[in-house]
Amino acid sequence: MDEPFFSPTSDEIKASTMTQFQQFCEQETGETWSDDAAFYRFSVASYRDFWSLFLSWSKLHTAGKPTPVCQGDSCEHAIFFPNLTLNYTESLLYPSVEVAPETPAVIAINEQGQREAISWRDLRERVTRVASGLASLGLQPGDRVIAVARNNLDSIVAALAATGLGAVWSSVAPDLGIDAVLSRFSQLEPTMLVAHQEYSYQGRTYDLQEDLSTLVQRLPSLRQFVCLNGDSSICNFEGLPAISLQSLKTTVPVQDFSWPMLLFNHPLFVLFSSGTTGKPKAIVHGAGGTLLEHLKEHRLHSNFGPTDKLLFHTSCGWMMWNWQLSALASGTTLVVYDGSPTHPNKDSMWDIIRDEKITVFGTSPTYLQYCRDAGISPAKQGSLEALRAIQSTGSVLAESHFDWVKAHIKPIQLQSISGGTDIVGCFVLGHPNLPVYRGESQCISLAMDVRAYDMDTHTEVPPGQMGELVCTNPFPSRPIYFLQDRSGQRFHEAYFQQHEGVWTHGDFLILYERGSARILGRSDGILNIRGVRIGPAEIYRVLEGFPTISKAMAVEQKDPRSPGGTRMVLLLVTQTDQELEKHDIWAIKKKIKQALSPVHVPAVIAQVSALPTTFSGKLSTRATRDAVNGNPIINAGAMQNPECLQEIQQHPALQHPPHKSS
């Protein structure tokens, strides 16, 4: 068996919150578990008991009855804690773990080097004032608040204030194109727009006034505009009252204000699918399910606590922004960054990690790849003693990323976490008591019965074999519904149609006997070449041996001359646009054949300048597949670089009818 990439010490295991919770469960149930795998099996087999125990251990402020824990056994229809009430914002502002009121709750930094820190005491005061002000403007429970927001302190304050009143928050990053913004927000019938009027990236400032004006014109349900930066008087939208966040947080009295207790399944966030298969789905997540799932992932799997500082490189348009926001409920200090991670210097992010003594850094394989390709070696620039864990998500974390982290940062808990917008959480993630193996997630999330299914037989595949990620039991962070889906048909088709009654997530993975997992990529990108199913991630892993290749995508192209009627084409983007020669293409094909099989060898390898990327930073298999097959590209508006699709469509090697293999 291969050696672990990292192993926690016995003292670290003994002190972890995971260990403390397991001991609490043993005391409450009278049971004992021989190891972490046995405790996981308990959490799945007795998921109602698990969630009841976790709610009790977490000491969240709730009201009502914590029974029944869950109504129904079907993942599609089960309802958790129907008789319980809580307030999401109050749970974040007043964590059940002890925090000193004067210590920082949020530290906000931008690419200009400006830094603002706010204590727990002042954050509570500021959010309460803003919430009181929003209530005086008429904001009601269930109202939908949309935000075009930068990743800074004001966005956090606005989100907490709105959700604390029972409003539903939905945000996008300021660099999202106006058509993409409208395709999302037009589904919400929002009553309030919260927005920054400008943002900076790579040293350049971008004005948002024109886009905001278009939003106001196209969303007639809006009743109020809240300006997050600048003077609200310049936000002159005809017929729409405007007020600045600054005036709300400084002038509104709060003596008689109290946070309303709301049903466990009261809507909290609307998140959007990436739009790779059509109009983005408006996914509604409940307050209690989101909070409980995040608290489990933070307190137990991530071992977060009041001594931690979490910096997750994200934007307000990615679900990881919502995820890291909830870390306040663990007493953890949030360090948020607004701007480019490579400005003013290519390693600016690592300067912040070092200067702020970050304990947990959240990032993506894309950023780690950038650091490797840019020759950045953070350990050589100064001590990273405080950093105890790195969490990575967004795409597959390859073995080479683990090797770079060990060589250029230090041996560390490198946790590959994966789940997504659909569950506003994780199916596989880290574990403070378990070793880390290269290329793998440490474990399955507690109380989630995650399995690998064969797509055709709908049965579980043996350990070590690739299958489709499914979850067979109910879990609290399942979306409560889609907007504009009264019958629930779209919801059913999205998650439960493929394997009846079982949540189908759309990822391929391998589950190992030791309890770890390997995510292989989206199942909607699976290839069927000559009757053989091929996971593209296997090919991408081989390409790691070619340092000139920065991005790759394998898709099927219709070809009546090929067995089965399709062929595989592999699109490659190289570092600094270095041109691939014929001998390079031959070497790539030879390596794939040797490492995998002749079936895995692409019929065509085509060099392109870019691959279509969604605004959430993910490569779009759907758009690429449509482009190479000459089909209408229905999701071009979801791409941040739609111009590359025309290049792909017109590439000489990909024309219809296709040329011979190149």
Structure write-up:
The structure is a single chain. The protein has 662 residues and is α/β, with parallel strands linked by helices. Among the domains are: 117-263, Rossmann fold (3-Layer(aba) Sandwich), CATH 3.40.50.980; 526-654, GMP Synthetase, Chain A, domain 3, CATH 3.30.300.30. Helices cover 30% and strands 23% of the residues. The protein is built from 21 helices and 34 strands. Strands 6-5-18-17-19-20-21 form a seven-stranded mixed β-sheet. A five-stranded parallel β-sheet has the order 8-7-9-12-13. A four-stranded antiparallel β-sheet has the order 25-26-28-29.
Concise overview:
The protein is an alpha/beta fold and 662 residues long.
Number of distinct beta strands: 34
Counted by DSSP, the helix tally is 21
Strand order of the largest sheet: 6-5-18-17-19-20-21
Q: What is the CATH top level name of the domain at 117-263?
A: Alpha Beta
> What value does the Rg take, in angstroms?
25 Å
Overall mean pLDDT: 92
Largest beta sheet, briefly? 7 strands, mixed
CATH architecture of the domain at 117-263: 3-Layer(aba) Sandwich
What low-confidence regions span 5 or more consecutive residues with pLDDT below 50?
Answer: 658-662
Helix proportion: 25-40%
Output the structural class: alpha/beta
Strand content: 15-25%
The backbone outline, from C-alpha atoms, is globular
From the N-terminal CA to the C-terminal CA, the straight-line distance is 40 Å
CATH-defined topology of the domain at 117-263 = Rossmann fold
